[in-house]
TrEMBL record:
<keyword id="KW-0645">Protease</keyword>
<feature type="region of interest" description="Disordered">
    <location>
        <begin position="1"/>
        <end position="24"/>
    </location>
</feature>
<dbReference type="InterPro" id="IPR051543">
    <property type="entry name" value="Serine_Peptidase_S9A"/>
</dbReference>
<dbReference type="InterPro" id="IPR023302">
    <property type="entry name" value="Pept_S9A_N"/>
</dbReference>
<dbReference type="Pfam" id="PF00326">
    <property type="entry name" value="Peptidase_S9"/>
</dbReference>
<feature type="compositionally biased region" description="Basic and acidic residues">
    <location>
        <begin position="12"/>
        <end position="24"/>
    </location>
</feature>
<dbReference type="Pfam" id="PF02897">
    <property type="entry name" value="Peptidase_S9_N"/>
</dbReference>
<dbReference type="InterPro" id="IPR002470">
    <property type="entry name" value="Peptidase_S9A"/>
</dbReference>
<dbReference type="InterPro" id="IPR002471">
    <property type="entry name" value="Pept_S9_AS"/>
</dbReference>
<feature type="domain" description="Peptidase S9A N-terminal">
    <location>
        <begin position="10"/>
        <end position="424"/>
    </location>
</feature>
<dbReference type="GO" id="GO:0004252">
    <property type="term" value="F:serine-type endopeptidase activity"/>
</dbReference>
<protein>
    <submittedName>
        <fullName>S9 family peptidase</fullName>
    </submittedName>
</protein>
<dbReference type="InterPro" id="IPR001375">
    <property type="entry name" value="Peptidase_S9_cat"/>
</dbReference>
<keyword id="KW-0378">Hydrolase</keyword>
<keyword id="KW-0720">Serine protease</keyword>
<comment type="similarity">
    <text>Belongs to the peptidase S9A family.</text>
</comment>
<dbReference type="InterPro" id="IPR029058">
    <property type="entry name" value="AB_hydrolase_fold"/>
</dbReference>
């Protein structure tokens, strides 16, 4: 018997067939009209949304509310639990930089962070030492959506750039704050990527401008006090398939222009000795060759996969001549040992790598070459490398957690190897790690590959197949989902759920080859790996098919759409957050923000019939059929530039048309947010509580 009963009739979307022929293949799309022609303008001003579209989205929201009405009390309970595990007046450990240390803090009831600084060696717990630099709650007053982009101070600590997005569209406005008086200057820099890189003198900075198609295609130089219209264009990237970012070095010697897609990169550098110069090319882009740079005094350290170093190596090159012809290997490539990122300091080279699916931090003495590792002994855990804000230091900062262990923050002396625990994440409502179990199990995929799956559950959870399970997956862009601590997941574990993360192909959990084996023509491995994880959990009696709720967001939402089509009978329910489900249509639309940059990830169906057919074979929207789909919840943001609102809207309409007896199919569109959902820390918990309430309802555990 369905847990959904007495539902009103769902909205029926109007059908307006539009035909499209590519490579001799004709498709008809009944719901293409849902893509607003004025989407660029609407992202900046949501009131411009077509009335018919708004009416349809509001009808979908009303239907969703009716379907979830009986979970209102459960949502409130879940929210209270999750909020109770968060220290409301929490504060970071400030990072030392010159005469000050900079940090963030929240106040009880506050949604947004406050940025502060203290004298370098002052007690950060003594609020009398703190100087408030930026109050996020104050800036967010009266706004339905508000997201800060951080605060970046000048070398002399006099001014700071801060940015905000108040639409959810990821067009950020930059302001300049006098850090002594707290007043903003008259400068207003609009339509940016969200941050800037100061010149050493603190009188100007560099930033990226988002074009009309929401791509960071230009870098500008802004002089404090002059209008944005007079900013100098420093560099323009002509290829719409490449992203661009701008940043500075710890030594303030260079401005970096990082130009890249998902598999190719190129750096241009600008010496801060001459800000009017043209950026200097380091190594010309070569398809499939990636590199990233950090400064080490008279040398650059460069992380690269050049020369078949699939899992990356580190080379060095003279600052005066950093071209590829001068690259000299310092950390060799080791197959299966993936180097993730690197940092350089006056006396040490530091990098984060993943061995056998687990992270470790490596440290090398630059003078002696001696190396050592920072590693831990749990079966599955997460490490975060924060480094330091200063170059001439022996102390770096890192974080550690596991599925059962709250996050711990350490300062680490790279010379003495002394580890100092600075902070342990507090769980005000209480948490006993001994009440829970975290495990890493291994699932056999369809082709014999072994897929790791990280589990969290209470010790008293029966492992006889009766436990409900939330199985999470992503599997794209080489992103690895860490086995870290989640206070929210405890609400499921405490209700008898097995919380599982499938480390499927498309991520880099087992090295770069793991990523390559889940992209382009091999994308279906991602979906089959996820299904294999579900099969393994059932086989080992952690759960049963009728108890598994699958969850994924964005590219993980594509995963949800694909497994719903491939194996609907193996899931009790599916949660698809901002799901990238209309893959073929999106990859055929080169005006959309992410389409050209994504061709290297999924394929270019405009130019290649073969790549068109790859995508058409799995694109969730294009493969919806008359199948026994489980209940599906799709979540969307009206101003989302990454996965546009019409993708999940079209998908739900087609599911309902093709499988009217299945489901139900629910769509929740946030009419005042984008890709990340609501922006406040507690507002976000409300959304998670809603998702978990759906999972608990579908599992029959209300």
């Amino acid at each position: 018997m369905s847990v959904f009963s007495n539902l009103p009739k769902p909205p029926v979307a109007e059908k307006k067939p539009v035909s499209d022929t590519r490579h001799g293949i004709t498709r008809s799309d009944d719901y293409a009209w849902m893509r607003a022609d004025n989407w660029q303008a609407m992202f900046k001003d949501p009131s411009l949304l077509d009335a018919a579209l708004r009416s349809h989205l509001e009808a979908e929201n009303a239907y969703m509310e009716a379907a979830m009405a009986d979970t209102k009390d459960l949502q409130k309970t879940l929210f209270a639990e999750m909020k109770g595990r968060i220290k409301e007046d929490d504060s970071s450990i400030p990072m030392k930089d010159g005469p000050f240390a900079y940090g963030t803090a929240f106040v009880t009831g506050g949604e947004q962070p406050r940025y502060f600084r203290i004298p370098r060696d002052a007690d950060h717990k003594d609020e009398a030492n703190r100087k408030l630099l930026l109050d996020g709650d104050k800036e967010a007053t009266g706004k339905d959506y508000f997201r800060l982009a951080g605060l970046d101070h000048t070398s002399d600590h006099a001014f700071g750039i801060w940015g905000y997005d108040d639409k959810g569209s990821e067009y950020f406005t930059l302001r300049i704050r006098n850090l002594e008086t707290g007043e903003d200057l008259a400068d207003v820099i609009e339509n940016t990527g969200g941050g800037g890189a100061w010149a050493p003198d603190g009188k100007s900075f560099f930033y990226t401008l988002q074009d009309e198609n929401h791509r960071p295609s230009k870098v500008f130089h802004h002089i404090v006090g002059q209008p944005q219209s007079e900013d100098r264009l420093v560099y323009e990237e002509k290829d719409p398939g490449f992203f661009m970012g701008v940043g500075g070095s710890l030594l303030d010697d260079f401005i970096y222009l990082d130009i890249h897609d998902h598999e190719t990169s190129e750096y241009r550098i600008l010496s801060t000795n001459d800000l009017s110069a043209e950026p200097k090319l380091v190594a010309e882009r070569e398809e499939g060759v990636e590199y990233s740079m950090t400064e080490g005094g008279d040398v650059f350290y460069i992380l690269t996969n050049d020369g078949d170093a699939k899992d990356f190596k580190i080379v060095e090159a003279p600052v005066a001549a950093p071209g590829k012809e001068n690259w000299k290997e310092v950390v060799p490539h080791t197959p299966g040992l993936l180097i993730l990122n690197h940092m350089a300091f006056a006396r040490h080279l530091v990098w984060l790598q993943r061995r056998n699916g687990l992270p470790e931090i490596m440290i090398r003495d630059r003078k002696t070459g001696e190396e050592h590792a920072i590693a831990f002994d749990e079966e599955a855990y997460s490490l975060g490398l924060q480094g330091a804000a200063e170059y001439d230091t022996d102390v770096i900062r890192f974080s550690y957690s596991s599925m059962t262990t709250p996050s711990q923050l350490f300062d680490y002396d790279m010379t003495t190897r002394e580890r100092v625990l600075l902070k342990t994440q507090e769980v005000p409502s209480g948490h006993n790690p001994d009440d829970y179990v975290t495990r890493r199990v291994l699932a056999a995929a369809h082709d014999g590959e072994i897929v790791p799956v990280t589990l969290l559950y209470r010790k008293d959870t029966p492992l006889d197949g009766s436990a409900p399970c939330l199985l999470y997956g992503y599997g794209a862009y080489g992103i690895t989902i860490p086995a870290g601590f989640s206070t929210n997941a405890l609400s499921l574990a405490d209700r008898g759920f097995v919380y599982a993360v499938a480390h499927i192909r498309g991520g880099k959990d087992k090295g770069y080859a793991w990523y390559e084996d889940g992209k382009m023509e091999k994308k279906e491995n991602t979906f089959k790996d996820f299904i294999a994880a579900a099969d393994h959990l059932v086989k080992e009696r952690f759960t049963a098919y009728e108890n598994i709720i699958a969850e994924g967001g964005s590219a993980g939402g594509m995963l949800m759409g694909a497994v719903a089509n491939m194996a609907p009978e193996k899931f009790a329910g599916i949660i698809a957050a901002v799901p990238f489900v209309d893959v073929l249509n999106t990859m055929l639309d080169d005006t959309l923000p992410l389409t050209p940059p994504e061709w290297g990830e999924w394929g270019n169906p405009i130019e290649s019939e073969e790549e068109y057919r790859w995508i058409a074979a799995y694109s969730p929207y294009d493969n919806v059929g008359a199948k026994p789909y489980p209940p599906i919840l799709a979540l969307s943001g009206l101003t989302d530039p990454r996965v546009t609102y019409w993708e999940p809207t079209k998908w739900i309409a087609r599911l309902r048309e093709n499988a009217p007896e299945a489901g139900p199919f629910l769509l929740k569109t946030n009419m005042s947010a984008g890709h990340g959902g609501k922006s406040g820390r507690f507002q976000r918990l409300e959304e998670i509580a809603f998702e978990y309430a759906f999972a608990i309802k579908v599992a029959g555990k209300m």
